[in-house]
Amino acid sequence: MGVFATSADSSDTGHEQVVFCQDKQSGLRAIIGIYSTALGPALGGTRFYPYATEDEALADVLDLSRGMAYKNALAGLDLGGGKAVIWGDPEQIKTEPLLRAYGRFVESLAGCYYTACDVGTYVADMDVIARETRYVTGRSVEHGGAGDSSILTAWGVFQGMRAAAEHVWGSPTLAGRRVGVAGLGKVGKYLTGHLIDDGASVVATDVNERALDWARRTYPQVDLVADADALVGADLDVYAPCALGGALSDDTVPALRARIVAGAANNQLAHPGIEKLLADRGVLYAPDYVVNAGGVIQVADEIEGFNFERAKLRATRIFDTTREILRLADAEGVPPAVAADRLAERRMAEVGRLRTIHLR
Ligand SMILES: NC(=O)c1ccc[n+]([C@@H]2O[C@H](COP(=O)([O-])OP(=O)(O)OC[C@H]3O[C@@H](n4cnc5c(N)ncnc54)[C@H](O)[C@@H]3O)[C@@H](O)[C@H]2O)c1
């Protein structure tokens, strides 16, 4: 039997709605956080993770869903921000009944929330969830899905980096620059290709030997260094964190020699205040959620019926958005991360307000 509860939580966190979902027989315990539908239905992936407590799961979904609202707003999408977490170890409890039970809860929100992949959920899971709900994206190509989102994520990061290069050096190219890529995974690999095509030299690192082998085989001109610390301390023009969150911390920022940071990793700032530390050291930080929006742009396009060229065009506009944020940051005398938040909030307020012009 399913148990379903919703609560408006706006007094504390600004969220429109938080939905707790439980289905005892399949073991499903999930929380869907809808931060904002000001711009349209909330879009954000489902994280399947063995949280220690329900409070931890709740804190994560509140944080992630808010972040999606800002990311989707600056990506120019007609979509609000939401996210879901399924609480449990996917290795142990992920089954067809559990995913389908979750799909029915998503369906019950009648299109206020669209789900997609995140940590612990994959394209194949979205196909299962889609057997119960229309409100799912990030499906397999054979089911009309868009496939690998890292292609446009890397393209968008490259565009954001070009805009940062223009801001610092006057020309929107990485030609002749030395770029450090931390993490040669799905995104880092494509990004390395774009950088080399543009005439940059790349220094990289990864903890995975297979990723390093790929680099040796595909781009023998890439310099490989021992670890992320060695990369941070290297003589770089640009540092591109493309592995895990928290790459910019009280330890790494003082060691950083690059003029620009622009990379794919989510949540690069280890804590609030790091953006100021970067600015004080003269490092231009292109906010992660702005430059890595190519992936969400891709899955959002799937809602319309996926068209790669249309999605790529939209991801290319990350160049213009980054440029605008950097201009605003200078004009208002704030770090780019603050300018990005202001721009996102402005779009949510100004475009969201139009919903009060009622159409009868
Ligand atoms: N794939 C997307 O569409 C997408 C979209 C938006 C944001 N992101 C973010 O970008 C980052 C990379 O995503 P991905 O899809 O390429 O992931 P991935 O798992 O394919 O690649 C991550 C790579 O980083 C390496 N790595 C892990 N720890 C490391 C360390 N300490 N030092 C060096 N390398 C390390 C891994 O071995 C792996 O090769 C993640 O933070 C992800 O959340 C990805």
Describe this structure in words.
With 360 residues, the chain is α/β, with parallel strands linked by helices. Helices cover 46% and strands 16% of the residues. The chain contains 16 helices and 13 strands. The protein has helices spanning 10-13, 54-74, 90-93, 96-108, 123-129, 150-169, 186-198, 209-218, 228-232, 252-255, 274-280, 288-291, 294-304, 308-316, 318-332, 336-352, and strands at 2-7, 17-23, 28-36, 42-43, 46-49, 80-87, 113-114, 178-182, 201-205, 223-224, 238-241, 260-261, 284-285. The strands form two sheets. Strands 1, 2, 3, 4, 5, 6 and 7 form a seven-stranded mixed sheet that branches. A six-stranded parallel sheet has the order 10-9-8-11-12-13, sandwiched between helices. It is globular, with a radius of gyration of 20 Å. Residues 1-5 have low confidence and may be disordered. It binds nicotinamide-adenine-dinucleotide (NAD).
Summarize, please.
With 360 residues, this protein is an alpha/beta fold. Helices cover 46% and strands 16% of the residues.
Describe this protein with a few key phrases:
single chain, 360 residues, alpha/beta, 7-stranded mixed beta sheet, 6-stranded parallel beta sheet, 13 strands, 46% helix, globular, disordered N terminus, binds nicotinamide-adenine-dinucleotide
Question: Helices and strands in order, then pairings?
Answer:
Layout: E1 2-7, H1 10-13, E2 17-23, E3 28-36, E4 42-43, E5 46-49, H2 54-74, E6 80-87, H3 90-93, H4 96-108, E7 113-114, H5 123-129, H6 150-169, E8 178-182, H7 186-198, E9 201-205, H8 209-218, E10 223-224, H9 228-232, E11 238-241, H10 252-255, E12 260-261, H11 274-280, E13 284-285, H12 288-291, H13 294-304, H14 308-316, H15 318-332, H16 336-352
Parallel strand pairs: 4-6, 4-7, 5-6, 8-9, 8-11, 9-10, 11-12, 12-13
Antiparallel strand pairs: 1-2, 2-3, 3-6
The protein binds nicotinamide-adenine-dinucleotide.
Nicotinamide-adenine-dinucleotide binds at residues 149-150, 153, 182-188, 205-208, 211, 228, 242-244, 264-266, 292, 295.
